[in-house]
Write a structure and sequence with these properties.
Elements: H1 2-8, H2 10-30, E1 33-37, H3 40-60, H4 67-90, H5 98-117, H6 123-150, E2 156-163, E3 169-177, E4 183-191, E5 196-197, E6 201-205, E7 208-214, E8 223-225, E9 230-233, E10 236-239, H7 240-245
Antiparallel strand pairs: 1-6, 2-3, 3-4, 4-7, 5-6, 8-9, 9-10
Helix pairs in contact: 2-3, 2-4, 3-5, 4-5, 4-6, 5-6
Length: 246
């Protein structure tokens, strides 16, 4: 009996799952954190399996007339869009597998649309919303497809990192490459004590940029911590608290 009820409410489960995941990603952005999974492949694999399981259960039981399920099905495509956008912006760029992210995004969008189309929503409502969702999906599919070729354009690579004497701060030299346009050399500082360990990953405080230089400068750049609050970049003194307060 419980299994049958869960199947009937698969659209609700999928909507709540995508909404909760998207809400988590949005919250990390608002708090200026970046989510870094401990095992990217395992986490994304679990998310994919859940999306497919909920979708299969919902479509298999599409003839059931459940108001709660149909109500959630109406807005599933919008919730899927919310999930796709927030995940891309909240998860660290270095931790995102481009093709895996795009594949999972397509899957979430297509499954949400299938659940919507198989629901018992009034035909007029389904037709109107279907047109809107189709237009939005075409734009998002196109953007995701294009991003396959340009995802790594302007990529950032950590070429050197060093902890302060008591591991309070982490300083990183970033090579910002923009192809034929050149790029920049960045120096970012992150306060380590603000990181939060979670069961499936870590929330890392978004880094603060304290230096921007010319492209390729990282090859000869020097870093030296004098104390936890004093950093020398190319022998120029930076007081961390003063720099971060600006």
């Amino acid at each position: 009996m419980k299994t049958k009820i869960m199947v009937k409410l698969s659209s609700v489960a999928l909507a709540v799952f995508l909404l909760a995941a998207g809400g988590f990603y949005l919250l990390t952005m608002l708090l200026e954190y970046t989510f870094v999974p401990f095992n990217t492949a395992m986490l994304n694999g679990s998310i994919t399996v859940l999306i497919l399981a909920f979708t299969f259960g919902g479509i298999r039981n599409r003839n059931e007339k459940i108001k709660l399920s149909n109500g959630f099905s109406m807005f599933l495509p919008l919730i899927a869009i919310f999930f796709v956008i927030t995940k891309r912006t909240a998860v660290g760029t270095k931790e995102i597998n481009t093709h895996l992210y795009i594949t999972q995004s397509y899957l979430a969008l297509i499954c949400s649309m299938l659940m919507f189309l198989s629901s018992k929503v009034a035909k007029a409502v389904k037709f109107g919303l279907g047109l809107v969702y189709s237009f939005l999906f075409m734009m998002i599919f196109f953007i995701l497809f294009i991003s396959i070729f340009f995802f790594d354009f302007g990529s950032n690579t950590v070429v050197k990192s060093e902890l302060s004497p008591n591991s309070i701060y982490l300083v990183e030299i970033i090579d910002n490459s923009q192809g034929a346009l050149g790029g920049n050399t960045f120096v970012n500082v992150t306060r380590q004590s603000q990181n939060i360990n979670l069961f499936v990953g870590e929330l890392k405080k978004s880094p603060e940029r304290i230096y921007t230089g010319r492209w390729g400068e990282f090859e000869t750049m020097t870093l030296r911590w004098e104390t936890d609050e004093i950093l020398y970049i190319n022998e120029k003194k930076y007081v961390i608290q003063d720099v971060l307060a600006k």
